[in-house]
Amino acid sequence: MIDLADIIQNLSESRPIFHSEADFQHALAWEIHTQIQNCEIRLEYKPQHIMQRFYVDIWCSKKDCITAIELKYKTRRLYTNVKGETFHLLSQSAQDIGRYDFLNDIQRLEEIVLKSRNVVGYAIFLTNDSAYWSYPRKNHPVDADFRIHQDREFTGNLNWDSNTSAGTKRDREETIQIKNTYNLTWRNYSEPSLESYGKFRYLSVKIES
Questions:
Q1: Domains in the chain: how many in total?
Q2: Which 3-state string (H, E, C) describes 74-135?
Q3: CA 14 from chain center: how many Å?
Q4: Per-position b or e across 171-201, b if 16+ CB within 10 A of its CB
Q5: What would the pLDDT profile of 7-65 be if each residue is shown by its tens digit?
Q6: Domain span at residue 44?
Q7: Cβ-count burial 114-132 (b if 16+ within 10 Å, e if not)
Q8: Which DSSP state fits 136?
């Protein structure tokens, strides 16, 4: 089984910031390849026994143990230079959609783990947007079920509030069904800039049968 905590810690030292989610995906896959011997890695892999059109970001096979990893990289505007390389991150709004998609990753990883042998899943969310790890400012946000702030615990059926606009939940109307119970812990990843949104934190959720 891959110890992602150590791998992410090492990655944060060499790559404290990424240009895009694809950049993050490639860098993490390469870090796993570097640290774990005899580990076969595939990107955008479709498990053969899953009928839906679902591709796993990183699929790691080592002997009889498989690790399936789904990634999210959400950013706020940040312009900085790290080790001579310029990074110009744009603001990605719609945090409610970002939360829904992350929890949907967990739901799909649960399905893969349930239908597979010797598979462990990880859903990883990396961001410099504190709105994701902070407690809601509103008492009853429309995406209350999908919140992923520090110490949030969730399980069961997760839905949009009845007052959610059709535009907000377009193509995401389905109920998310979570079988296990998860308690969320955010960890510091890096701080490549002292400017606003210069601090990155990540969430790692382990999915087991």
A1: 1
A2: ECCCEEEEECCEEEEECCCCCHHHHHHHHHHHHHHHHHHHHHCCCEEEEEEEEECCHHHHCC
A3: 20
A4: eeeeebebeeebebebeebbebbeeebebbb
A5: 999 999 999 999 999 999 999 999 999 999 899 999 999 988 776 778 999 999 988 88
A6: 4-207
A7: eebeebbbbbbbbbbbebb
A8: P
